[in-house]
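SAMPLE LOG
Freezer: B-3
Tube label: C17
Construct: single chain, 291 aa
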Amino acid sequence: MTTTKNDLADSDARQVTSILSDATSGTVEIRFLGTAAFEIVTANGVRLLIDPFLEENAESPIKVADLGQLDLLIVTHAAYDHLGDTLDIMKRWPDVMCIAGVDVRGYLMAQGIAGERIWSSPWGMKIAVAGVTVKPVYSRHWSYIQGPDGVPYSSIPMGYIVYASETCRIYHSGDTALFSDMKLIAEFDEPTVGLLNVGFPRNHLGAKHGVPDYLSGEMDAREAARAVEWLGIETAIPCHHDDVKLPEIVEFAARVVALDDVDGAILEPGQSHVATADAGWSLSDTWSAES
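STRUCTURE (predicted):
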């Protein structure tokens, strides 16, 4: 029997479809945990955490000990407020898988985590782990960490597209600066929801981790609003903050309100938004620019 390229393409398509086959009738829940941490429950019931910065995050409504069912961790880069409690979580829950860059993979393996539990894929190479499809995409930032023995680990940082249902594609920007190829992400990946870094937290721990103060985040409100336009998303959720009344978040909300065909969901740490195939989200669900 001869296998053609078309047969292989059809097989790949069936595999992706099977991963999302239970997603069409379900909902997707996104809960903001402060800074860049999010809990997402996909339409087929996969529970994942992105950038699980919980213990040092004073605004997070949950800590590591509070976690129940957990299927997957996704880490954008090795900064303390993004890698967060990944190591502790993986030690406590030995069945949890992780998607991360090769530097994070090397660091976690050096701390005793089995390599087969950590999947690393470069920009553009879509993978399926723990029942969810994820595509790493470009992030204009850096990723670096030192192990307890002083060994450095560094590689490319990540953004991600999480295929949470057949109609909900979530883009997490990591800590990226603005870049014009966001237009290509819009064209080829068609994200519907953007979790976008805007400014920096009021109660950041930069001084503890080697950066006493910041004059700006990687994207300010104006840049993040431009990212919303370039990405073509339907719903914009700002992150990398701990208070919706921060000036950058207030300005971002006002700029998103002024855009056509975009809803803003401005979440306090602990708040959630739910997406269905029939219902969108709006800024008024949680907070308005006039609040």
